[in-house]
Amino acid sequence: MKIFSNFAVILALVAFTTACKKEKKNETTATEAEVVAEAPVAAVKYKAIPAESTIEWKGSKPTGNHTGTVAIESGTVSVKEGQIESGSFIIDMNTITVTDLKAGDGKEDLEAHLKGSVEDKKDHFFDVAKFPNAAFEITEVKEAEGKTMLSGNLTLKGVKKNISFPVTVTEEGDNFTLTSEPFTINRTDWGVNYGSKSVFDNLGDKFINDDIELKITLKASKA
Length: 223
Known about the structure:
Layout: H1 2-23, E1 31-32, E2 44-48, E3 54-61, E4 64-80, E5 83-98, H2 107-115, E6 133-144, E7 147-156, E8 159-172, E9 175-180, E10 183-186, E11 211-222
Antiparallel strand pairs: 1-8, 2-4, 2-11, 3-4, 3-11, 4-5, 5-6, 6-7, 7-8, 8-9, 9-11, 10-11
InterPro entries: Lipid/polyisoprenoid-bd_YceI, TTHA0802/YceI-like_sf
Organism: Abyssalbus ytuae
Protein name: YceI family protein
């Protein structure tokens, strides 16, 4: 019975480890900014449709998760023969919205905290009064392990870092859609340190995880 019990424990540990690895599958590693890609003359240019483009986010802490969205304000993507050649888009940080809470149930307070619109909490997260926009500029697109990997410089709170994540691209007539798989970034790479146990060692269980999960949907039409 003891042997069976030990074997069960080992199986549980293996299953837990495997699950953790799967969760980390699309974890990005932020590196130094790279040269922005340029499109050839023959490329077709698409202009973002803000009303149909968005970034979904998820943040977590020991007591649970929060989810939300932030809007893509503008952007362009150049495509040649179905392949992305270059592009960039601007993110309106003033549109940070919390979707898992209802109005009057903490939604407004959390949105204000994330935006930094509370006087003594301006620098806790994104301080949108000082940094109203974030930006993403494509540096490379390549195929890896059967997936299309998009690399680009993400500028957030004035810090520019290069990240890569898997995307799906479709062209239909005059329309273009780019959809990423969910991926994570480490917020501390961009100086968003509030509540991070990797930065502060006295938080106990009152920390906020460093990883933020993102999922990008960019819809565009021919310019």
